[in-house]
């Protein structure tokens, strides 16, 4: 009798391999981030993120139509305001860039799910994710602003709000304010386990949101920690988060898996700007095959336990899938 165990039997050809495949990527898992700026007729590539652009609202609408047409269900919208102040007032203005963009998208492409990033760093002159006094990022005062920003996005038509500031208690504050205004059915996707990461570098160029002094380590998490991520997730669920997020994704696959094993709630993972730019740069040099590396990376994020992936590759993947 042959005592050799032969796992290779199930790798015999691609049909059999597909039959036993445990994880597969679907366009429906993907969320596409987009950056919107003031002005008209603007589509400007971001230097450190080839293939990612700043769009003015008119061209953003064309882009969103394309995103819908390739089958991507949702976008994550970031505003890049032309005006900044100490309180980040454009972030909650009815005439702010995000609010205007959301109204237009909902008018022209109502079926796309619009998720808005709720934060202050792109809107404040100091570039921190909250209200700064005496060099400190104040927690409770910021939370009031974050809730106000979220409400203004929902009033403009946002389907889901995604607070990314990492202040304590902001999910509860947003939920309470939205409920009090009758928006009981608007989900919150909380950036729950968001690490202080150097992988956000290219994004900060795109969003013009780098901190002007210090860093974000007093509010974003230390990358040496894993148990703390579970505590953050538990708190956000308790406060009313409907979807929790782990960010970045690739260096944090272990965190995604722990969250998956410990909680019963949809998990989003953010395949962030630095993860995107590294692949783009290596592919440009001819050192890796972009398409196969991207599919491997995104599948690994899903295999780790993510239910949905926010990725700048979403459009490419959707196109690859439809032309296979
Ligand atoms: C805003 C925010 C950041 C990202 C998403 N929302 C940057 C940061 O926290 O500095 C990063 C996204 C990316 O790198 O792709 N707080």
UniProtKB/TrEMBL annotation:
SMART domains: ALAD. Its cofactor is Zn(2+). Pathway: Porphyrin-containing compound metabolism; protoporphyrin-IX biosynthesis; coproporphyrinogen-III from 5-aminolevulinate: step 1/4. InterPro entries: ALAD, ALAD_AS, Aldolase_TIM. Mg(2+) binds at residue 232. It catalyses: 2 5-aminolevulinate = porphobilinogen + 2 H2O + H(+). Keywords: Heme biosynthesis, Lyase, Magnesium, Metal-binding, Porphyrin biosynthesis, Zinc. Its EC number is 4.2.1.24. The keyword Magnesium applies. 5-aminolevulinate 1 binds at residues 204, 216. One of its GO terms (biological process) is protoporphyrinogen IX biosynthetic process. The active site is at residues 194, 247. It comes from the Bacteria. GO terms for molecular function: porphobilinogen synthase activity; zinc ion binding. Zn(2+) binds at residues 119, 121, 129. CDD domains: ALAD_PBGS. GO terms for cellular component: cytosol. PANTHER family: DELTA-AMINOLEVULINIC ACID DEHYDRATASE. Homooctamer. Belongs to the ALAD family. Catalyzes an early step in the biosynthesis of tetrapyrroles. Binds two molecules of 5-aminolevulinate per subunit, each at a distinct site, and catalyzes their condensation to form porphobilinogen. This is Delta-aminolevulinic acid dehydratase. The lineage of its organism: Bacteria, Bacillati, Bacillota, Clostridia, Thermoanaerobacterales.
């Amino acid at each position: 009798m042959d005592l050799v165990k032969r796992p290779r039997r199930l790798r015999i050809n691609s049909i059999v391999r597909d039959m036993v495949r445990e994880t597969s990527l679907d366009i429906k898992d993907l969320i596409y981030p987009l950056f919107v700026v003031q002005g008209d007729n603007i589509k400007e590539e971001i230097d450190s993120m080839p293939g990612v652009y700043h769009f003015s609202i008119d061209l953003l609408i064309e882009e969103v139509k394309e995103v819908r047409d390739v089958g991507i269900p949702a976008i994550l919208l970031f505003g890049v305001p032309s005006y900044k102040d100490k309180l980040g007032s454009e972030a909650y203005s009815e005439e702010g860039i995000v609010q205007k963009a959301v109204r237009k998208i909902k008018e022209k492409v109502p079926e796309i799910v619009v998720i808005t990033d709720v934060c202050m760093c792109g809107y404040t002159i100091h570039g921190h994710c909250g209200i700064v006094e005496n060099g400190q990022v104040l927690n409770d005062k910021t939370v009031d602003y974050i809730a106000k920003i979220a409400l203004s996005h929902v009033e403009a038509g946002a389907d889901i709000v995604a607070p990314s500031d990492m202040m304590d208690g902001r999910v509860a504050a947003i939920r309470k304010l939205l409920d009090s205004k009758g928006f009981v059915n608007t989900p919150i996707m909380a950036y729950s386990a968001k690490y202080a990461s150097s992988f956000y570098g290219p994004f900060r160029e795109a969003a013009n949101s780098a901190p002007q002094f210090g860093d974000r380590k007093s509010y974003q998490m230390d990358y040496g920690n894993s148990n703390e991520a579970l505590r953050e997730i538990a708190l956000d669920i308790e406060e009313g988060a409907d979807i929790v997020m782990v960010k970045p994704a690739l260096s944090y696959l272990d965190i995604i898996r722990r969250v998956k094993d410990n909680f019963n709630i949809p998990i989003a993972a953010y395949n962030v700007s630095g993860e995107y730019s590294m692949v783009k740069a290596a592919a440009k040099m001819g050192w890796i095959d972009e398409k196969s590396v991207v599919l491997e990376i995104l599948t690994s994020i899903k295999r780790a336990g993510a239910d949905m992936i926010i990725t700048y590759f979403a459009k490419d993947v959707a196109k690859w899938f439809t032309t296979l």
